[in-house]
Amino acid sequence: MSKPQKFFPLWVAGLLCWPLLRGYCQSAPNQPILPRPGNVVITEIMANPNPSQGIIPAREYLEIFNTTTDSLFLADCQLHVGRSVRFFPPDAILPPGEYRILGAPADTALFPHGAFWGIDRFPQLPNGGTCLRLVSTAESALDSVCYTDSWYRDPNRDGGGWSLERLSPQLPGYCPENWQAHPTAAGGSPGSPNPLPQNTLGRPEPSIRQVIPLDPWRIALYSTQGLALPSPAAASLLTLSPGPPITAILPGNSPYEWWITLADSLRRKTLYTLALEPGWKSCMETTSSQPVQRKFGLPEPLHAGDLRINELLFNPFPGAADFIEIYHAGQFPAQMRGIVLENTQLSNGRISQTLQEDYLLLPGELLVISPDTASLGRYYPQLNQRVMLQHPLPTWPDKQGNATLRQEAIILDSFDYSADWHSPWRTNPEGISLERIQLDEPTQDPENWESAGGPGATPGLPNSQRASPAENTADWFIVDPPYFTPNNDGNQDYLTVHFQPRTATYTLNIRIFTPQGRAVRHLASNLLLGSQDTLTWNGHTDDGRLAPPGIYIVWMEFFNLQGQRHVFKWSCTLVYE
C-alpha cells in the first residue's frame, strides 16, 4: 500500500491552510501541536454492533479523545488495527477535550455532524479482539489497546450490540480493568463522554496468581490484576529462594504477566518460593500493601494416580456449567497444558478436550475446570476463585458417563459416574456435585462418593464430604443387631443405633431408605446429640405401617456449628419369623 502524500499546513491571518489542497483553510483558535504519547487516546470500541439496540447506528467504530488543553494536529497519523495500517484525514485537527468517531466514510451521515472522521478503507474490528494503536507522524506510539471479548465482564453484553468503553482516559489503555461494557440501553456513547465514572470497578490490589517456569532460566509471574510496566525498582521487591539472583524483569505477552530472567538455571525436583514485597503496582495505579509469595518449580512427568478426580458436577443448575475438580497427589509440580479430559463412554459430541493454557499445579493443590467459571460464582459464592480455570469440557450427561484424565497415553484417573450414586435424600440432584470422600480410596468405589452438602458443591474448597482420619470412624456409632424382627416377641424387636461422637456437640439427621433410594422413615431431624445417645427403629414407616421385609439403608448425617459434616451409611435387614 502506497503512503498518502503529506500535507503540511500554513498559518494565514489566524486561519490554518493547506496550500496543496487548493488553498483549503479553516478557523483554528489555537495553533495545533503535534501529539505526544498519551495526548490522544482510544476511549470506545464498537467491534460487534449486531444485534443493534436501535439507538446508535449499527456500525463498527472507534472513538478517540484529546486529553490535553491544546489542539492536536493528527494529519498523517496512523491507525493500526492488527496488521492493517490506515491514515487520518489530511485536515485532522482535534480540539482540546473533544472526541472524534473513526469509521467508514460511507457511515458519515449516520453519526453526529462534525464528530465523525471517515477513514478510507476502515478495517474490520474483530469481535474476539485485536491490538489497536495510534501512531504519530514520528512513528511513536500515542496509545495502544489490545482488547479481548473478556473485557466486557458482562455475559449479557458480550454477544453484540454494546461497545467497550474506557473508564479513565488518564489510565493505560492496555489495562483490562480500565474497560467495561457500555452500561445503558443505548449500547454505546460515540462522540460523547462515557457514562462510566473512573471508580466504577474499584481498584483492588494486585496479587500473585501463578508463577510458571518458561524455561530453566526464565519464569513468568501472573497477577490477579493487570500490571504496570516493570520498572528498575521492581527487581528490588522480588526475592527467589532457594534460587539464583534475578537479573531483569520484562513485560510479558499480556497485561497480567511479567517475565523474570535469572542469573542461573533452576534445578529439577526443587520447589522455589517467589516472594514479592509491598510496593508493586497494577496498571490501575494501585500499589500492593501486603507481601505475597507463591511456590513453583520445574514441572515433572506425571504418573498414574498423580492427578485425581476429587469432585464432579455433571447436572448443573439451569444457566450454570459443569465443572471438574482435580487434586494433585504427586510429589512435583505438574504442567496442566496438554492434559486431556475425556468421556470414554461417548461415541459423539464433545468426547475430549485438551487443556491449552499454561497452569502449574503444585502437590496438594486443587484445580477447578469449567467452561463458565462466572456461572459457578453465581450459584456457589464461597468458591475459591484463585484455582479456577475456564476451558471447554467434554459432554457429561446427567444420568451417567465417564470422566478421565490423561496425559498422552497415561491414564491418570478415570471415573465412571452415575446419578444413582447421589444420596437417596437428594430427590433432585440438579446443581449437586458428587464429592470424593477419601483421596486414597479407589476412584471407582461407589462408597467413596457422596452428594455435596451445603449449597450443593464446593469448587476449589475442601469437600463437604471429606473424611477426617481423626474423626470419621465407625466407632462413632454402633448399629445393632444386623437384622431385627419387629414381631413383639421380646427378641430383637428393634434396630438400635448407639451414638458416641468424640468431639464437639453434633446435630443428627437420620433416615431409613430402601436400596432403591425411597425414604420410608425419618428417624431424627436436627437432633442435638449429647455425649451418648440411643435411637431405635421399630420397623414402622412414617405412615405407621410395618415396612416390608428386606434390606434397608440407615443414612446418618452429623454436623456442628464449626462447619464440620460427616455422612455414614449402614445396612440392616428386617425379617419376620
Number of DSSP E strands: 42
Whole-angstrom Rg = 32 Å
Strand portion: 35-45%
Oligomerization status of the protein chains: single chain
Structural class: mainly beta
- Neighbour order of strands in the largest sheet: 11-10-5-4-14-15
Number of helices: 1
Residue stretches low in confidence (pLDDT < 50, at least 5 long) are 1-7, 467-473
Largest sheet: 6 strands, mixed
Helix content: under 10%
**Averaged pLDDT:** 85
Distance between the termini: 98 Å
Shape: elongated
Summarize the structure.
With 577 residues, the protein is mostly beta strands.
Provide a descriptive summary of the structure in words:
With 577 residues, the chain is mostly beta strands. The chain has one helix and 42 strands. It has a six-stranded mixed beta sheet with strand order 11-10-5-4-14-15, with no helix packed on it. A hairpin with a 5-residue loop joins strand 12 (129-135) and strand 13 (141-148). It is elongated.
Tags for this model:
single chain, 577 residues, mainly beta, 6-stranded mixed sheet, 1 helix, 1% helix, 37% strand, elongated, disordered N terminus
Topology:
Layout: E1 10-12, E2 15-18, E3 24-27, E4 40-46, E5 61-66, E6 72-73, E7 78-81, E8 84-87, E9 93-94, E10 99-103, E11 116-118, E12 129-135, E13 141-148, E14 164-166, E15 179-181, E16 208-215, E17 218-223, E18 238-241, E19 246-251, E20 257-262, E21 272-276, E22 292-296, E23 307-313, E24 323-328, E25 334-335, E26 340-342, E27 352-354, E28 360-361, E29 366-370, H1 373-379, E30 388-390, E31 400-407, E32 410-418, E33 434-436, E34 449-451, E35 477-480, E36 483-484, E37 495-499, E38 507-513, E39 519-528, E40 533-537, E41 550-559, E42 565-574
Parallel strand pairs: 10-11, 29-30, 36-42
Antiparallel strand pairs: 1-2, 2-3, 4-5, 4-14, 5-10, 6-9, 7-8, 7-12, 12-13, 14-15, 16-17, 17-20, 18-21, 19-20, 21-22, 23-24, 23-33, 24-29, 25-28, 26-27, 26-31, 31-32, 33-34, 35-37, 37-40, 38-39, 38-41, 41-42
